[in-house]
Amino acid sequence: MLKEIYKKIKKYDTIVIARHIGVDPDALASQMALRESIRKTFPNKSVYAVGSGSTKFNYLPKLDKQDEYQDALLIIVDTPDKKRIDVNNFDSFSDYIKIDHHPFVENFGGIEYIDDTASSASEIIYRLIEETPLVLDYDIARIIFLGMVSDTNRFLFNSSSNTFEVVTKLLKKFDLNLPELYSNIFMRPLNEVRLQGYISQNMNVTEHGLGWIKITNDVISKFGVDVGSAGNLINNFNYIEEVIVWVFISEDVKNNLIKINIRSRGPVINHVAEKYNGGGHRLASGAKVSCMEEAEALIEELEDVCKDYLEKMGDSNED
Ligand code: AMP
User: Fold this and answer.
1) Model confidence over 112-160: pLDDT tens digits?
2) What stretches of 152-235 show up as alpha helix (H) in DSSP?
3) What is the CATH number of domain 190-318?
4) Confidence (pTM)
5) Using a 6 Å CB cutoff, which residues line ligand 1?
6) Whose CA is nearest to atom 16 of ligand 1?
7) Buried b vs exposed e over 167-183: b needs ≥16 C-beta within 10 Å?
8) Atom 14 of ligand 1, residue of closest alpha carbon
9) Class for domain 2-186, per CATH?
10) From the CA of 278, how far away is ligand 1's center (Å)?
11) What is the pLDDT of residues 43-74, one digit of tens each?
């Protein structure tokens, strides 16, 4: 199928690459690595990477402006569902390719390459480049590495032997400056670290190992962070002995909604997120609700999921 993707890329003179709303480093890195590689392989093609950016990720190449495109191919990376694709006029494209590492949600109407065992969308872009004549150079290798490190949280999650093989190849072939790359991704302001301390102090932990906290707009303002950065701190709460699933409920006053981030180190949680206008991976999901009552209903469902999980674990330990 990777060869078919390459053939389609070869066929179109105009190619637009999009990914999900609420940009994160892997979404952006997979998009940028693919754009740079297609541009370097086919200098006469017009290739654009579109969507809303964030100044937080200015260590990655810049996005292009959205335009009206004629007879263009749309490639969507790192996105399983149509409603979260960050692109205008989805239906105006001539053809579609999806490249994703989320569990399948829906078909976009073209080639679909999905591997939900891949660490990141960036890892799949590497595979595509490796198995086709697409160009790989130092800059592209650097972008792919950034996407992989970031989505795996420094290879803590979803890292298989394939992941480490890709990393080994990148490091062997290109002299990547790891300290520089890590400081790009992991440097953070003191305010965020202080908010992390607040969350540790105030997280509620239920009988069945559900950790949850409401991060109100007052708290977000007091610590001087934005709601997205507050939510991202969820990734720093793994490996707490008493907690198997943890949830942040953040008030997003600007968008008049409540953003939910959920992580798990056992129970599958994406089916619960899907019921609350959300989705994601089995152990890392997000959702959006409109009021605290809905958020509380979600907490209750997750508590049940934790309870079932612990009971099953108990049963299997007795066997
Ligand atoms: P987050 O907690 O925002 O980092 O998201 C974790 C995972 O859930 C990512 O794979 C997101 O793409 C996915 N996700 C987050 N929010 C939503 C949503 N509202 N709908 C569907 N998927 C989501």
Assistant:
1) 999 999 999 999 999 999 999 999 999 999 999 999 999 999 999 899 9
2) 161-173, 178-186, 190-202, 217-223, 227-232
3) 3.10.310.30
4) 0.90
5) 20, 22, 84, 102, 231, 234, 261, 277-281, 284-288
6) 286
7) beebeeebebeeeebee
8) 286
9) alpha beta
10) 7
11) 999 999 999 998 889 999 999 998 999 999 99
